[in-house]
Design a protein that fits this description.
heterodimer; A: 130 residues; alpha+beta; ATP Synthase, domain 1; 2 domains; 2 helices; 9 strands; 44% strand; globular; B: 290 residues; alpha/beta; Pyruvate Kinase, Chain: A, domain 1; five-stranded mixed β-sheet; 6 strands; 62% helix
Chain lengths: 130, 290
């Protein structure tokens, strides 16, 4: 009996990634990191900036996301996100760009607490990457 | 009858017009393929988003306190209409169809004595609407610089709409765009996005979900995103429709120009022949009289 399930990441422009031999996915859910295994209960949650880890037989993959929604149902995991980057494709200068943007955002004074929190999160995650 | 020289000039000018329309058709065909592809690729996102929201709104326990974006403000006094058109012309009835649809909606709203506010996306719509509804247009956005429809632009429009909603500037929001069916047919659509109209759609599953954090919080996070997503979907459909409409319009124009060239050529040959015959008759009758 395989312990694998299907994951699909979609962004507004296209279906970003489809994989059906995934054993575990760790997503940065809003209330903390969440590991999803096969036969998880149906769940809907949303993401904060962080790293999605996809563990599968064919190798592990890491993606940086800034926001999104996860839906898990019948061993199908859908992740909807507007900003996603594969860490492998992301070079230092890209990281620096994003970090700079996030820092600027975090330093704004006229934003509400939630956007401030999200911006801080972004900065934190991006710093750990460097 | 026009002189031979005039006819020659007209034929040349029609031919060069034909060249332009032919080139535009080719360009539109190439762009159409890309636009159609991205419209198709964009569909899963908006469908999934819709599905999640459907599941959420069914699962919500306290309907009274549901977010305003879902349930509305409880009144329908001010209507905001987002009319999405293209930035370029020469695309057949594409823009006029949207405008026609929008105008009939505007008339209905004004007849009912409600207030109307308009946001135009794309300069062509603004050009056509500002004559009649100039004082109703509160915002005019155009994405001339962006080559393709992208989410970033849609998000800008979405954020603006939400900002205005939260400031209490309107109660109901409807977007107007052309849905791409095929190259020949585009259907102008009016879609209400605030409050979200999910009635009539059945949830795909009866299964209950676990929510983390709770439904209300997810919903209030998701709904603004959904607005941008719907607008983005409309933009994608619109850009595919625009290219499709342009392609068929330019195809027709090329064909018409071809017909015109044929007709003019026949006329040209005929009058040339007539001139020759006339000269011959003159020479012959001149010779006879000698």
């Amino acid at each position: 009996m395989s312990e694998e399930f299907k994951v699909e990441i979609v962004n507004p422009e296209k279906s970003f990634l489809v994989k059906d031999d995934v054993s575990e996915v760790v997503v940065p859910a809003f209330e903390g990191e969440m590991g999803i295994l096969k036969d998880h209960i149906s769940i809907i949650s949303f993401l904060k900036p962080g790293i999605i880890k996809i563990l599968s037989k064919s190798g592990d993959e890491n993606y940086y996301v800034e926001d999104g929604i996860v839906e898990f149902k019948n061993n199908n995991l859908s992740i909807l996100t507007s900003t996603i980057f594969n860490l492998v494709d992301m070079d230092k200068s890209k990281q620096q760009d994003l970090l700079k943007q996030a820092e600027e955002e975090a330093n704004k004074t006229d934003i509400n607490d939630q956007s401030k929190y999200l911006a801080d999160q972004k900065v934190e995650v991006l710093k750990t990457l460097n | 009858m026009a002189s031979l020289d005039d006819l020659k000039k007209r034929i040349a000018s029609v031919k060069s017009t034909q060249k332009i329309t032919k080139a535009m058709k080719m360009v539109a065909a190439a762009k159409l393929r890309r636009a159609q592809e991205s419209a198709e690729k964009g569909r899963p996102y908006s469908e999934k988003m819709n599905n999640v929201i459907l599941n959420l709104s069914n699962g919500i326990s306290d309907k009274e306190n549901a977010p305003k974006l879902l349930s509305g403000t409880g009144q329908e006094k001010t209507h905001l209409c987002v009319v999405m058109t293209s930035d370029r012309g020469l695309c057949g009835g594409f823009n006029s169809n949207i405008i026609k649809k929008a105008k009939s909606y505007f008339a209905k709203i004004l007849d009912e004595g409600k207030e109307l506010k308009i946001i135009t996306v794309g300069s062509k719509g603004n050009d056509q609407l500002k004559r009649v509804y100039g004082n109703k247009i509160i915002e005019n956005i155009s994405f001339k610089e962006s080559k393709n429809a992208n989410y970033f632009d849609a998000d800008k429009v979405g954020k603006m709409v939400i900002e205005k909603f939260e400031a209490g500037e309107f109660d109901v929001c409807t977007i107007f765009y052309n849905q791409f069916k095929n190259v020949i047919t585009q259907i102008p659509q009016a879609q209400q996005i605030i409050p979200l109209n999910n009635e009539g759609e059945e949830s795909s599953s009866e299964e209950s979900y676990e929510f983390e954090p709770d439904e209300d919080e997810i919903l209030s996070n998701l709904l603004p995103k959904n607005i941008s997503t719907q607008i983005f979907k409309a933009m994608l459909e619109n850009s595919a429709s625009e290219q499709g409409s342009r392609m068929s319009a330019m195809d027709n124009a090329t064909r018409n120009a071809g017909e015109m060239v044929d007709k003019l050529t026949i006329e040209y040959n005929r009058s040339r022949q007539a001139a020759i015959t006339k000269e011959l008759i003159e020479i012959i009758s001149g010779a006879e009289s000698l």
